[in-house]
Amino acid sequence: MSSLLLSAPEARTARGGADDAPRRIGILGGTFDPPHIGHLWLATLAADAMALDRVLFMPAAQPPHKRPKGLSRAADRLLMTRLAIATDDCFELTLIEMERPGPSYTIDSVDQLARTYGDDATLYLLMAADSLNAIGTWREPDALLERIEWVVGPRPGSPLPDRSSLEERFGANASRIHLLEGPSLDVSSSEIRARVAARHAIRYLVPRGVEELIAERGLYRRA
Questions:
Q1: pLDDT at position 21, please?
Q2: Which of 83, 94, 78 is nearest to 25 (CA)?
Q3: Given this model, what pLDDT does residue 15 score?
């Protein structure tokens, strides 16, 4: 059976039994419309810095901050994400937001994943600096930080905050926010969509499988 067709539990079984269960797990959410090298680099940077056993890519079914009208079909985004992470054993797809009705609130997903993996696992929420800067628009951000530590990667145009500003905003819980050092990639899904619409190359901005699927299905092409 192709690994692209495996569900998350099946994929875990294919790689090993319960004794191989991950103990340190990163969670990277997003619309992944499309997934690109910036997403993969953030996951890799976090896995390296935080010694993560696995990073879960969590496509949102109904992102609270984006209008559904401008969003690609869930099936296309899901398949693109599968293709993007297929060659890295550290990466895994989770379907929990795709399978849950209603808006895809991160705090609900974190609670669900915590129940799934239990007390033996430590979960970390991965995000880029621009997401941290907009955290006030998220649902219950302070409660979210109580539940899960955050790992924040660099993003061009969105400098990482200093510790004093984090402590002013989050108090003692600022110690639960980990800031990553490393190069940042100036690439975005919106830029890739615009390039496709203008018939420009996107090779090396997205994994090859994603590029081929976009071309095959005519995604992001203007009518």
A1: 75
A2: 94
A3: 37
